[in-house]
Amino acid sequence: MSMTPLRAIPSLSDYASDIGVATQGLAFPRYAHSSAPPGESVALPSTESATPLIDARNVLLKAGFDPASFREQQIVWGDQDPFQHVNNVRYARFFESARIQWMMSIGKEWGGPAQADKMIRGQGVSLILKTMEIQFRRPVTYPDTLLIGYAPLPPSSEDDTSFQVVASAYSLGTGAFVTHSKETLVWYNYDELRKCSPPKEVADIVASRRLKAAES
């Protein structure tokens, strides 16, 4: 098996710090599965069948993102603006699509396809977006494909009605992260039209996803 050298791969704590999330007490390692110090390259296993998509998935996995959230976003010509790069507004939609996919994976684990469907149709308990902060790192141009991943962060308070997540978009064309997002999600009971504490079953699912990210 050959080794393909890549740039140093930061962890979720790096992204969180980069976009303004408090990282004190986070368990995420800076260089998961690697002894390479900051600034040096990290070698990832590769095979003859390796593709840019496989490489991108490896990078996101090593960074601690939840694979259930991974979504390929094809860039089309109309995503660009007169400045000849993808318009910044587009990224909110890109992240939204990946976030909904991640929500549905939580719903499916919680109660199967029916529960996943309820979560995206505003029935019972689901999640709504409260805040979103996007950081643009590099321009993206057509043609390209982005791989987007999400991961929940440890709770920052005793209030269990909301939690923060981080997300990143990785360009297969340039082999680099191009955009990061920091978001606050709120548990919301659509039947009662108010925020709520999540049922223990689904809270445990999110907590397990968080632990898996920390262990990556």
Automatic annotation (TrEMBL):
What are the protein's GO molecular function terms? fatty acyl-CoA hydrolase activity
Q: Which residues form a coiled coil?
A: none
- Which superkingdom heads the taxonomic lineage of this protein's source? Eukaryota
Membrane-spanning residues: none
Question: PANTHER family, per this entry?
Answer: 4-HYDROXYBENZOYL-COA THIOESTERASE FAMILY MEMBER (PTHR31793), THIOESTERASE_THIOL ESTER DEHYDRASE-ISOMERASE (PTHR31793:SF39)
Give the protein name, as stated in the record. Answer: HotDog domain-containing protein
Q: Which organism is it from?
A: Ephemerocybe angulata
